[in-house]
């Protein structure tokens, strides 16, 4: 029998993202961790892969409609891409158990910051 629980979680996340604009990673990664018991590394990697594919489609649609300010995008890339690469390299060095603890804490902090930001908005 086919387990549709992952599809249901994806559909609910897509609904919330569509209604609110909140990033799916702030929702899907905790769902994968808490409800499905997926390891932090796998949850993050899976969510990033899915986000990359869906964002390509979204970026094309917004670019076609002229909604993208490429100067702002370039400025964001200048900070985010080097830092993302640095964190990936840093996280890949060290004991696997330390990585899981660090990732769990980082996800917890990110979710709390997102929740506080949503309440403050």
| Strand runs, count | 0
What is the 3D form? globular
- How are helices and strands ordered from N to C? HHHHH
What is the CA-based Rg, rounded?
16 Å
Mean pLDDT: 82
What are the low-pLDDT stretches, counting only 5+ consecutive residues below 50?
Answer: none
The DSSP helix count reads 5
Q: Main β-sheet, in a few words?
A: none
Q: Which bin fits the share of residues in helices?
A: over 70%
Strand proportion: under 5%
Distance between the first and last residues' Cα: 43 Å
Structural class: mainly alpha
Describe the structure.
By secondary structure, the chain is mostly helical. The protein is built from five helices and no strands. The protein has helices at residues 5-20, 25-34, 40-64, 70-91, 96-120. Helix 2 (25-34) runs antiparallel to helix 3 and helix 2 crosses helix 5. The longest helix has 25 residues, at 40-64. The model has no long low-confidence stretch (mean pLDDT 82).
């Amino acid at each position: 029998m086919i387990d549709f629980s992952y599809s249901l979680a994806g559909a609910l996340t897509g609904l919330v993202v569509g209604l609110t604009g909140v990033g799916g990673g702030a929702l899907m990664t905790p769902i994968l961790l808490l409800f499905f018991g997926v390891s932090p590394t796998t949850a993050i990697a899976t969510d990033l892969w899915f986000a990359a594919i869906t964002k390509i489609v979204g970026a094309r649609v917004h670019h076609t409609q002229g909604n993208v300010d490429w100067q702002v995008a370039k400025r964001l890339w200048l900070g985010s891409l080097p830092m993302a690469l640095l964190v990936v390299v840093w996280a890949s060095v060290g004991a696997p158990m330390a990585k899981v603890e660090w990732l769990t804490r980082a996800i917890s902090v990110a979710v709390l910051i997102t929740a506080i930001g949503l309440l403050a908005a």
